[in-house]
Amino acid sequence: MKRIKQIFSLILVLVMAVSLVACGGSSTPAGGNSSTPSSTSSSGSSGSNSSGGSGGSGSSGGSSGSSEPVEVVWWTYFGDTNIQYLQKIIDAFNASQDKYHVTIIFQGGQAEVNAKLQSTAQKDLPAMFSGAVENVAMYDAADFCVPLQEYLDKDTEGWPELEDTWGAIRAAYCDTEGNLVGYPIGYSYPGIFYNADMLKKAGIDPKSIQTYEDLYEACKKLVKGGYTTFGIGFHNDGYYPTASLGREGVKAYNNDNGYSGPITECLYTDDQNVYNALYTMVDVYKKLHAEKLCVPYGADYQGEIIPLMASGDCAMLMGVVSMTTKILNAAEGKFEVGIVPLPSPTKNGKRTGEPAGGTGSFICNNGNPEAMQGAYEFIKFASTGDQAAFFAVSTGYLAPNMQAYNSSLYQDYMKNTFPAIQNVYDSLANSDDSANNPYIPISNEMKAANKLMIETVASDTNADVDKVIKTSEEMIQEAIDLYNAAN
Amino acid sequence: MMLTLRQKKKVKEWAGFLIKTLIGLLFVSPLIIGLIFSFQSEKTLSTFPLRVFGSTFTMQNYVNVFSKLPLLGFLKNSVIVCLVTIFAQIVISCLAAYGFVFFDFPLKKLLFTLVVSTMMIPGEVVVITNYVTIQNLNMINTYAGLILPSMISGTAIFLMRQYFLTIPRDFKDAATIDGCGDMAFLFRIAVPLSIPTIISLAIYLFVQIYNQFFWPLLVTNTNEMRTIQIGIGMLVTGDIINYGNILAGAIVAIVPSVIVYIFGQDYIVKGMTAGGIKG
Known about the structure:
A: D-Maltodextrin-Binding Protein, domain 2; 2 domains; 6-stranded mixed beta sheet; B: MetI-like fold
């Protein structure tokens, strides 16, 4: 037995040694600073030079009189796949000028990035960071964030892409007075992905799924008709109820969702329209689970729901457009994938907009004006047609502005890869900016309360929907009160 | 057919071995399945139902993780942090434990109680204060920042003290008569006698420090200083997750832990029981 252990250990050591030898040359940090030589020729720096110092602003800011480019550090929560795409945009930016050098660095998940931004000393902060659009209110109120508007006001060159940004997404990145806080790098949009072949066979027109009740009927038809095992699977995130209320065209918080004054009340039960919308939506979740028409809530969309779709065991997925690539890859050669915008809870829904999702770029106040200016220049550069289109095509995020949308790259993508995405743009074209995210920095608490609402009715088919909504409202109200008391 | 006593014993041994092997396999099955899946393509891993023995075999996931991430650099950092921290903890805990066992001084019991009570404070509680301290010491993004808060632990001092208590006092008296000072007694007699305990402590610390995620993420800002667990974290975050890559990264990351455990598993049991005789 001892010999077996020794042999096994030896094998493991050998495997390690072989890995070290075989892969020794690939130690360039791709995720962080693997600028290609061509991209850095103008700056005279290679990928390995860029993240010296603290990884924040450090002392690498340089000065305008120096020949060294100003280091612009970007903290992000994007994972390795998206960082690879962003690195290409960064390389193009670094090669396009010699004043700034951008370095992207992974800093954990969303919550971890926010925690680091809040607790890091100013000198160690980056010049730019990624942030979720629903946290715009938080960033606007935070010391570490400088609104883009400050740079925009001083910009004599103009920013045409900003003017041509979809109204809904631009509004989502503005404060209550219309000042720009950040700009989207990945514009996400909720919707329902579907197996077009299966729905066609079942005689369901996906565009007819306008309300949650329509969704229920479609699932019933698909499952009871023997076309599939599950009608739909849900991305288990508390963002969807808020998005659905946006589709309905109702405002679930007082003072016009915080745009005409501070939010002090959650109106889940106080506003009859909000309550009706919520009740209908939650009740549909309950029915779908009680009748086993959907994948049990909580299933992982990447590990469970998309494979179920790929195998024909699930017809639809309620998700966001950034999941597109994964779904298209899984469905490749099996069936055509379609997408329709999120339904509204009731048939009275406006369906003229919804709170934007996804990730934006923000300037971080690290005390280095040149690096912060560099961040602004980069954000502008990343919004230009070709760059924004490249990221959208690679990831599935929406093209944030008309330049990106009209670029040949994106038009090719729409024509050849995912024609159904046009449905989302049609919906966007009919949208107004009335359905913004509630303007208060408690999005995490809101999402948690909303998610709990769905989880409760999904796991307990006898749950009282009215009580479930009240509990959710109490949780959100507590968070609102706490926030207002502390600020 | 009647079995002889020897045959019965043999059958019992084999049955015991078989049962233990099956239980062992059951416990280790997630790792085995993960290892097998790490050699399957993402396309295969996106099918339902998943098959452990899929039709594809590919090294692409390993190629991907090594080409996308500086995993070797992350591993190097993890190993440096582990080695320095373990060395520091062993030295400091041996010195502290020696004092608690062989010296008499006022408030000894109270001080030891204080040391032990630190074991009851969850690490998360002191993360922010530690972070602010490290930040004020300008140690963000340095090995010192990664290592400093882990250099001393109540658990290590407690473990070493418990073992030193089992060393007969006569040894100390005899050594003193022979002109052996405290430091010589500690390093020439007490520490060599404590090797199983020290190794078990080292393995325990290795697993604990090697698996740290939040602290290294907090105090490091660049990939050059990142440890392996953060590297794996980079593979997990985002809307598009490649499970094959995650599994390949995880398998690479657990190799050092497995090696350490294989070499030291005998000492873990010995070390944990060695100090349990006298309290």
